[in-house]
């Protein structure tokens, strides 16, 4: 390592030699940087999974515009929308089709465990509003009291779920009513429920009996070919007499939902603070290590200054230590975080992931944090007078 750094820097790697001179402190510093990396990685993975889980149910459908109530900050939240706005929207010449979307929560018992399912329902005849994978199975939803279930539902045995087919449906009981599960689709557990269930609007009325067919949760619209969805949405905001309606493009609704989950909901704010705390922990640890190192070697640094070396040279030594700590500490931190996130994903079925982009982002952030700590730690060197030290 010393030879490599000597060739890389073109001089004796003084920073490296100072770090390994006290191996116990060096190991503690690496452990601190690795711990901060793990903390940041895990929090970012959870934040990312929240965004993925939020967008996931939107991917079950295909629409251009979504009409929601004023308080509908998420797809599974908010008041209901009068169905009459669907018919008025269809009067717009650039609205091709529309369908009401119903959202509710049901639960079923499975091997003594209660499984909660966020349930979505539209008219199976409006198959163009399903995502392609679900649209191929939508004909089965025309059968009374039938549905298709998310194969990634927490608590649902994968082997049993793989056997659910139209030839071998699984009969379950939901709210005292038999429901025939005809097939599966790929969803994924979220933060609000164990999985997802898709049924027809008629079956939905049977399962969630207090809901009225005239008051869906959202209205989905398709615009005609070539029409600008944003322009049509703006027109509908002028045409529909209810000013409280949220008439957005489907993509805009997804972005606003993710933003709401990450910046307004307590869980999103807590995870965001976790990332900040991880960065602060790393800054404090590295700063403490480097400032102690500077204090211990203040006479040596003063000697360099007396020999005519400028402050920039001394700063380079400390930054060399900071970069070494950031690089070597990031390796175990990344490996430990990958193991933890993999275990958390298996245990919770949440879409947790650490992508190469996240690894690169955290590594660059670690380098910047360590460099900042190193710069702060050299403040005493700038004012150190060799004459006073000796």
Automatic annotation (TrEMBL):
Protein's UniProt keywords contain Protein biosynthesis: no
Main subcellular location of this protein, as a coarse class: membrane
Keyword Cell membrane: yes
Cellular component annotations (GO), alphabetically ordered: plasma membrane
Superkingdom, taxonomy of origin: Bacteria
Listed InterPro entries: ABC-4/HrtB_transporter (IPR051125), ABC3_permease_C (IPR003838), DevC (IPR005891)
Domain ABC3 transporter permease C-terminal: 273-386
Ranges annotated as spanning the membrane: 26-46, 269-290, 322-341, 353-376
Membrane-topology descriptor: Multi-pass membrane protein
Keywords: Cell membrane, Membrane, Transmembrane, Transmembrane helix, Transport
Location relative to the cell: Cell membrane
Protein name: ABC transporter permease
Species of the source: Paracoccus jeotgali
Origin organism lineage: Bacteria, Pseudomonadati, Pseudomonadota, Alphaproteobacteria, Rhodobacterales
């Amino acid at each position: 390592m010393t030879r490599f750094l000597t060739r890389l820097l073109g001089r004796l790697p003084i920073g490296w030699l100072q770090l390994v001179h006290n191996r116990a402190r060096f190991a503690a510093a690496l452990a601190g940087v690795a711990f901060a990396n793990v903390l940041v990685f895990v929090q970012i993975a959870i934040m990312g999974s929240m965004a993925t889980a939020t967008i996931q149910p939107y991917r079950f459908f295909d629409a251009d515009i979504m009409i929601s109530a004023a308080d509908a900050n998420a797809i599974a939240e908010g008041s209901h929308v009068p169905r009459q706005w669907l018919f008025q929207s269809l009067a717009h010449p650039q609205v091709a089709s529309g369908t009401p979307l119903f959202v509710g929560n049901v639960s079923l018992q499975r091997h003594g465990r209660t499984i909660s399912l966020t349930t979505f329902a539209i008219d199976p005849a409006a198959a163009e509003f399903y995502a392609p994978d679900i649209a191929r199975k939508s004909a089965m939803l025309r059968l009374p009291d039938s549905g298709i279930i998310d194969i990634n539902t927490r608590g649902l045995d994968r082997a049993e779920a793989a056997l659910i087919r139209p030839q071998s449906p699984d009969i379950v009981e939901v709210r005292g009513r038999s429901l025939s599960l005809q097939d599966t689709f790929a969803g994924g557990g979220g933060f609000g429920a164990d999985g997802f269930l898709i049924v027809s609007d008629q079956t939905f009325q049977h399962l969630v009996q207090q809901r009225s067919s005239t008051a869906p949760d959202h209205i989905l619209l398709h615009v005609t070919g070539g029409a600008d969805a944003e322009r049509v949405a703006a027109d509908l905001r002028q045409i529909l007499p209810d000013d409280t309606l949220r008439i957005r493009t489907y993509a805009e609704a997804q972005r606003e939902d993710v933003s709401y989950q990450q910046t307004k909901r307590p869980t999103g704010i807590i995870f965001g603070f976790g990332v900040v705390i991880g960065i602060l922990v790393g800054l404090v640890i590295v700063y403490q290590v480097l400032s102690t190192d500077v204090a211990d070697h203040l006479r040596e640094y003063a000697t360099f200054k007396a020999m005519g070396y400028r402050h920039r040279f001394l700063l380079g030594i400390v930054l060399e230590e900071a970069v070494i700590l950031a690089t070597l500490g990031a390796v175990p931190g990344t490996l430990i975080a990958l193991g933890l996130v993999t275990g958390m994903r298996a245990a919770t079925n949440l879409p947790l992931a650490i992508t190469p982009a996240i690894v690169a982002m955290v590594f660059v952030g670690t380098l910047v944090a360590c460099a900042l700590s190193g710069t702060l730690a050299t403040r005493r060197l700038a004012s150190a007078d060799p004459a006073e030290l000796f």
